[in-house]
Design brief:
333 residues; alpha/beta; D-Maltodextrin-Binding Protein, domain 2; 2 domains; nine-stranded mixed β-sheet
Length: 333
């Protein structure tokens, strides 16, 4: 078991150690480290328990649509028509970022520069060697090995995949025309892992590999990440201030059920792959929903320090207040 997997397991057990979960949720692996941390603090302070299963956004949507769990979690927001069809509503919980992580001996964090179009060509299998001319062009002085690039991707239905492939589709016409954006796609190359945990483990275990993971997993695994480009073409590293620079452009509305995709936002310091993660609730279960939002309201009031510690970006206070108004509109008190 890898170090990150051990950490997540310990957190999950701690969050549910007092008793079986009173409220159950399932879905995105993207925010799982933070949800475990929030759940542990919430149980410790209130004695109310949250049992969260990190199974991927696709699984989260399926389980809440079938009413198997009390709340679902997805990094891919659902459009209003689909929410109405499944009798759900949604709100964002936190903002995170997806990094292009790599395991290339001799290359440290932030040393490798990759144009967004080059990232797309690597994952499309068009660029297959680390010393390809397209990579060398932006990395003068960096020793790039004559080794095959091993692409690591998700094997499960994933909101992280959706946001990453959405970014690739904005950066590359070839990607947009041949692959598009989706929770699961027919990958041109590479090996698959389940969850952000699985992809992180693959990268750690596989020399000369590259993959996409949520920043919290990169930080916990001590992996190197590439420096990417902003929408305007400036080089930008995977750092908190650059995630915040992109996140500030999020435009949330209750009328649209907070639907928003945040990749390649304007600004010379905006990191290009930022995404919100969402909570899905069944419209008819007002009593259970009230218990769920007590947890998330607690997290909104007390969880910003945990979010920062784990590499996430907390929602602005005005957004949290907009979400509280949205809850009231849905009849949840």
């Amino acid at each position: 078991m890898t170090k990150i997997a051990k950490g997540l397991l310990i957190a999950a057990l701690a969050a549910t150690s007092m008793m079986a979960g009173k409220i159950s949720g399932a879905g995105a692996t993207f925010p799982a480290p933070l949800y475990y941390d929030w759940a542990y603090s919430y149980a410790k302070e209130t004695k109310n328990r949250i049992n969260y299963q990190s199974i991927g956004s696709g699984g989260g949507i399926k389980q809440i649509s079938a009413r198997v769990v009390d709340f679902g979690a997805s990094d891919k927001p659902m459009k209003t028509a689909d929410l109405k069809k499944d009798k759900l509503f949604q709100f964002p919980a936190v903002i995170g970022s997806i990094v292009v992580a790599l395991n290339v001996p001799g290359i440290k964090d932030e040393e490798l520069k990759l144009k967004n179009s080059v990232v797309a060509d690597i994952f499309a299998g068009k660029i297959t060697k680390w010393n390809d001319a397209a990579i060398k062009a932006d990395n003068a002085g960096l020793v790039l090995p004559d080794e095959k690039i091993i692409v690591c991707h998700r094997s499960d239905g994933s909101g992280t995949t959706y946001n990453f492939t959405y970014y690739l589709a904005q950066a590359s016409k070839n990607w947009k025309n041949n692959y598009g954006a989706g929770k699961a796609i027919d990958w041109a190359t590479g090996i698959g892992g389940k969850g952000n945990e699985g992809v992180s483990s693959l990268i750690i275990q596989t020399p000369y590999s590259i993959g996409y993971i949520e920043n919290a997993y990169k930080e916990q695994s001590k992996l190197a990440a590439a420096t990417l480009q902003t929408k305007s073409g400036k080089w930008v590293s995977a750092r908190e201030e650059n995630f915040k620079a992109a996140a500030k452009y999020a435009s949330w509305t209750k009328e649209d059920n907070f639907y928003a995709l945040l990749a390649l936002q304007p600004g010379d310091t905006s990191y290009p792959i930022v995404a919100a993660t969402f909570i899905l609730l069944p419209a008819e279960k007002l009593k259970t929903n009230a218990e769920v939002i007590k947890f998330f309201d607690y997290a909104f009031k007390n969880g910003d320090a945990s979010a920062k510690k784990l590499g996430y970006i907390s929602l602005p206070e005005e957004t949290k207040n907009l979400i509280r108004s949205y809850w009231a509109d849905k009849g949840i008190k």
